[in-house]
Amino acid sequence: MFEKLLENLKLNPPLVHNITNYVTVNDCANIVLASGGSPLMADDINEVEDIVSISNALYINVGTLNIRTVEAMVKAGKKANELGLPVVLDPVGVGASKLRNESVETLIDEIDFSVIKGNMSEIKALYTNAKNTGGVDVQEDDLIDDQNIEEAIEFVKKVAKKFNCVIAVTGAIDIVTDSQKVCLIRNGHAIMSKITGTGCMTGSVMATYCGSNKDDIFGAAVIAITMMGLSGEKAYEKIVARSEGTSSFRTYLIDAVSLMDFQILKEGAKIEIR
Amino acid sequence: MFEKLLENLKLNPPLVHNITNYVTVNDCANIVLASGGSPLMADDINEVEDIVSISNALYINVGTLNIRTVEAMVKAGKKANELGLPVVLDPVGVGASKLRNESVETLIDEIDFSVIKGNMSEIKALYTNAKNTGGVDVQEDDLIDDQNIEEAIEFVKKVAKKFNCVIAVTGAIDIVTDSQKVCLIRNGHAIMSKITGTGCMTGSVMATYCGSNKDDIFGAAVIAITMMGLSGEKAYEKIVARSEGTSSFRTYLIDAVSLMDFQILKEGAKIEIR
Amino acid sequence: MFEKLLENLKLNPPLVHNITNYVTVNDCANIVLASGGSPLMADDINEVEDIVSISNALYINVGTLNIRTVEAMVKAGKKANELGLPVVLDPVGVGASKLRNESVETLIDEIDFSVIKGNMSEIKALYTNAKNTGGVDVQEDDLIDDQNIEEAIEFVKKVAKKFNCVIAVTGAIDIVTDSQKVCLIRNGHAIMSKITGTGCMTGSVMATYCGSNKDDIFGAAVIAITMMGLSGEKAYEKIVARSEGTSSFRTYLIDAVSLMDFQILKEGAKIEIR
């Protein structure tokens, strides 16, 4: 499945419109480029429709939201829906504040998303209005492991049915489902949570793959998570070998995405499709 | 003193709310993670109280301020005071514009700070309404060295008394005082001023240590400055050995913070407590 | 010509006020420092005049514009004109949206620019109101090579005459002209378009050199482009030697600027003055 996804991206490199937070926006732009796409980062309400119109996919990330950008997100999302472009949502930290909950609710009401991606605490907050006291991090109760994986899968399938889109839950074991098909991904490394932006970047890579693979959104979500996880493993090996720390890890993570190809992916992917 | 501070952070890793500038915000988030905390970066006035409520410390940095964020800073600061959370202020570039002076005055009037951290030009501008024509850099007249250190200490003690909090002045020799105790730190390297964000990151590390060490704010300020200075020394050694430049220095600086432990700190710290 | 430009910067390191986008603002600040200047990044309309007043040059970049910042840009630009400071414009993505076109038109109407820098699609959009569907990237039709270079030069000279300033067009062959003198620069590497911010950083370096070389704006534009291109070549060599990717490339690019001197520049520059 990866071969076709990669080939489509190479043949039709997408323009990816990102409306995202100012913390990791530079990482998001660079990871789109590293993945083979071209990033557009406009967020003013007066130009988002024009920018969506020349794009192939839209990525919405609520990391540092404010009222001004939420309106721009809605406008951009509606335009993307109208034009049939894939739209990916990252509801960062939903559950941690009233503004965040209300904004994400508005986004989901107004826009048809292709993929919603988050950690388990965020996805739970989305589905059940649970409080998310971990901020942008997953809460301990929500960690996915081999003990609770079956239960987790059933839950995520329900979420996908409710929101009628692909749901991608990142964690030690990642879960991607469109409510029917399920894919588990066991790539990645714990150190990925020791830098800011791995989640945001995963969303940007997803939007990039969606942009060139409109007919396989599920596959696009899977390849993005696998690629990021595998790149995390390679980056971790490198800092261990060189006795380096978390900032070098960030550099090598993006490096690995830029150097990724079918062969590396095939050899390193730890995925299980059900 | 460092052992206890490090242990508290490890036992109770803090959530650190940063309201900061869009230039170095990514570095701030990454350095909080490298220090062992977890960063939250929300700055919309409608959610800062919710975010403060799940945090253990608040860091306010006026690097790129605008009217919208100043109001959010005040709201966040008051909430933090109400909840008894430590609040660290970095009055970046105060003295360089009327807006900056007025905003910082408002912040100091409305919020009880635990630590105010800046270079000598900023601290002077704060205390005496001096003009700060160096922008965000320290002015030549304000450099601290062995010749003027005694005079500088007396001045900083007065500032600490006036603002009733710990004052941390960074420079070739750093001075930390709560108006009684004084600590001088002689770690660091001149190249630290050749990248943006060392000051901001120092503030974020301070807030991180304050978050886990509410009962030793003075110590938290000292360990943060020492750790950053020592990390600067280690990063400088590395770029010299590898013939690299300022951007590699930035990477290795954050790396060194992420690799820091009691042993390294004990061996490398050049501190003098009076 | 480079020797004098470098010497002036060393003798009078400039304070460079950047009003730029939130995607690459950190890179811009770091490249100003790597070049030997000191960055100021304020963009609130209530302080830009104060900040311009202590600066030596102003850089305006419309990468992520919004109405608030356009007003601040105009105010800052007028103040810079009043004080006789060089002002550099980077009309990022002009042609891609109505807001972008109108904003850039306003800026050009209200401010006297010393240099306007962009890729060929942007410069064409500026001159002919052409649509720029490539977003922030150059469109294929607008690539400059040895076949169309003469035609391109004549066009850029016309643009320089129309806007009465130095025009710097970046591409595989860069063109700098004040409508009379022309300089072609053949430094650089294609990988430079695989990271975000090379264009923005080039603008910041230009403003830095302009700040210390008010009497040789043409030369300042040429040295900035040459230095960035040559640094790109050196960074590329390094990642090839170390089997690294695009993020390491970004690090080494800034490194190379920070390590640049007259000797390196003299040996590596591929410039042709006509």
Contiguous runs where pLDDT drops below 50 for at least 5 residues of chain A: none
Number of strands of chain A: 9
- CATH fold-level name of chain A: UDP-N-acetylmuramoyl-L-alanine:D-glutamate ligase
What share of residues are in beta strands of chain A?
5-15%
Oligomer: homotrimer
Biggest sheet character of chain A: 9 strands, mixed
Q: How many domains would you count in the coordinates of chain A?
A: 1
Most extensive protein-chain contact, per-chain counts: A-B, 35 and 32 residues
User: What's the CATH class of chain A, please?
Assistant: Alpha Beta
Shape, per Cα inertia axes of chain A: globular
Adjacency order of strands in the biggest sheet of chain A: 2-1-3-4-5-6-7-8-9
Distance between the termini of chain A: 14 Å
Structural class of chain A: alpha/beta
How would you characterize this protein structure?
Chains A, B, C: Pathway: Cofactor biosynthesis; thiamine diphosphate biosynthesis; 4-methyl-5-(2-phosphoethyl)-thiazole from 5-(2-hydroxyethyl)-4-methylthiazole: step 1/1. Chains A, B, C: Substrate binds at residues 41, 197. Chains A, B, C: One of its GO terms (molecular function) is hydroxyethylthiazole kinase activity. The structure is a homotrimer of 274-residue chains. By secondary structure, chain A is of the alpha/beta class. The first copy, chain A, has a single domain (2-273), classed as UDP-N-acetylmuramoyl-L-alanine:D-glutamate ligase (3-Layer(aba) Sandwich). The first copy, chain A, is built from eleven helices and nine strands. Chain A has helices at 2-11, 25-35, 48-53, 67-83, 98-110, 120-128, 149-163, 198-212, 217-242, 246-259, 262-268, and strands at residues 15-19, 38-40, 57-61, 87-90, 115-119, 166-170, 174-177, 182-185, 271-273. The first copy, chain A, has a nine-stranded mixed sheet with strand order 2-1-3-4-5-6-7-8-9, with helices on both faces. In chain A, helix 5 (98-110) links the parallel strand 4 (87-90) and strand 5. In chain A, helix 2 runs parallel beside helix 10 (246-259). Chain A is globular. The mean pLDDT of chain A is 95. The interface between A and B is medium-sized, with 35 and 32 residues.
